[in-house]
Amino acid sequence: MARWTKGFKPVPIEKYDGQTNPQEWLQLYSTAIRSAGGDSYVMGNYLPVCLDPAVRIWLTSLPEESTTSWGYLNRKLIESFQATCN
Fold this sequence. Notes:
It is built from 4 helices and no strands. With 86 residues, it is mainly alpha-helical.
C-alpha cells in the first residue's frame, strides 16, 4: 500500500515525456511535491501519475521491489532518459 503524507494536496505537474532533460523535470517535480506537502515517499508513489504513458511503461519494467526508493527511481530516470533529451 502506498504511503501518503498527511495533508498532501496534489498539484498539476506537466507529465514527463522522456524528451526533455530529466534532471530539470525532476527538480520541478520534487519542488511541486514538497510544496504540496509531500515527502520522498510521496514522490515515489505519485511519480506514475506524472509520467507520459510511454515513460510509464519504462517504470513498470523496473523490478517491483526497486520502485519503493525515491533515490533509486530518481537515479534510474536520469540514467534512462538523459541521452534522449533534446
